[in-house]
Amino acid sequence: MYTVSSQQKQYHTYILSDESANSQIEVVPERGGIVTSWRINNQEVFYLDTERFTHPDLSVRGGNPILFPLCGNLPSDTYNVDGTDYKIKQHGFARELPWTATSQSNDGGASVTIELGSNEQTKADYPFDFHLAFTYTLRGNTLEIRQEYKNLSSTPMPFSSGFHPYFLCGDKNQIEANIPSGRYEDNRTKESFDFDGKFNFDQEEIDSVFGHLSSRSTSVVDRDRKLKIAIDYDDFYTYLVFWTVKGKDFYCLEPWSATRNSLNTKQYLTVLEPNASCTATVSITASFF
């Protein structure tokens, strides 16, 4: 049985439940449209820095932040449109702005649709009119995120988009990653390395960027927590990023439509013509074993 309910916490929170699977997610539209929690049989899938979350002036560390209209950062946070320079922060503004819940359903899954539109605040950083509609659907132990991106401008609209899920983990040395690429670039040093499924977790930070993906699916097995995370994504997504920092009990496995600085390099950048739209889908499956 699928149910959708809401609760007033610090923010108005939508709770999607699949009672037969004892699976439940929480969505907070006004805090960047983020999924903050996902519990299966009372075991948490996502990491969340709950103290930081209470401060609306700080970016969220945890859950599943939305990245738009760029993934990563730009040199000097700057890009150019038609001869004019614009400044935009790392990962864009969608994860910081209030979204609006517009519909919900329990037909074939527990789902809620959230929407975000351009305004004067966004146009100061990103001179385009847009409309985003994301639908979160929970079925069993799978969270599906269907996205629609629409250009309401009179000129072509460039962007990239992605997600930054924080997965709660145990002993990182018991993590095995199945990422469909044999090489990655270390974002800190810009060096490239072969990849055999293992990371050196003794480093202070891991920031590995994987391109040339050979599959539409990736996964990580955490043998300490006995949890497998599988992420499926469509052709919209061209990169995966694995990120973590030493001493924190999370890792991030992030599907991106384009890599850092794509607003300047144009590589894998999505460009929508006026009044055009596109769709994309990401599914995350969490399996305790």
Automatic annotation (TrEMBL):
Source superkingdom: Bacteria
Alphabetized Pfam families for the sequence: Aldose_epim
InterPro entries: Aldose_1/G6P_1-epimerase (IPR008183), Gal_mutarotase_sf_dom (IPR011013), GH-type_carb-bd (IPR014718)
Chain coiled-coil ranges: none
Name of the protein in question: Aldose epimerase
Native source organism of the sequence: Pseudanabaena galeata UHCC 0370
